[in-house]
Design brief:
By secondary structure, this protein is of the alpha+beta class. The protein is built from 4 helices and 11 strands, in the order αβαβαβββαββββββ.
Length: about 250
Amino acid sequence: MGRASFARSVLRPGRKSLLRAQTSQGAAVAFGDETNHFARRISCGWGPRAESAVDVARRLQRMARDLRRVEPDLGSLWPAFSSRAIRPSDAGPVDQLPIEDLARLIDSRARFDPPHPPAPVGPSGYDLTLAELPTVDWRWRLDPHLIAGSVELESRNGCHFRPDVGFPAWNDRDKGRALLCVLIAAWKPAWATANASLKKPNDDQDGRVTWPRRPWLIWVKSGETIPYEFMDIGEPTIVRAEHGGELRIWP
């Protein structure tokens, strides 16, 4: 897969890279040490794919269990169907519910299409936010959000973590890769990435305002592409085949 299939620079010719401004004698600043990040995320996504509530429940349970194996300090994942805080009396956590009960919750509370269950889910699929309880430290929150089962042409199927900028794993490449692999194993996506949005936006040629994405980890399944543009910060330091695709890692 060529480099253009992975990412194209959002910087226009003649514009100085915001990241290269933070380098010293050509040495790139490590991802976790950069101070100009507005937000950081770990995400995966895939195209239209029909899935039942049971399918989603099984994948969700695998993700929840694998996350705790990678990092025991993460809290248990609970379905969050309202804006209030999770209570111990709520249904959960995800990895301890029987599959049938979790699927029933997903089918009744995570879809917004008529007719209601037991009719099959509509083309928009399921949309579910998860909360963590308890957490050792607020910096360990992942704030997961999931869209799955959509068969629409412009589907937004994906699972997204938005950890705080102080998330300890940002300074641990192996831990970041392990979290990315959890998403790949559970959701069988077309792509997965850990990246950051910079604080300073760019004005695009057509008048749009864009927040440049700084890559850290990018995995793309063979034959697929990733739907984002990333800043050009030079070649990755590691490129290797993994999980039926190619993983690229930057400092």
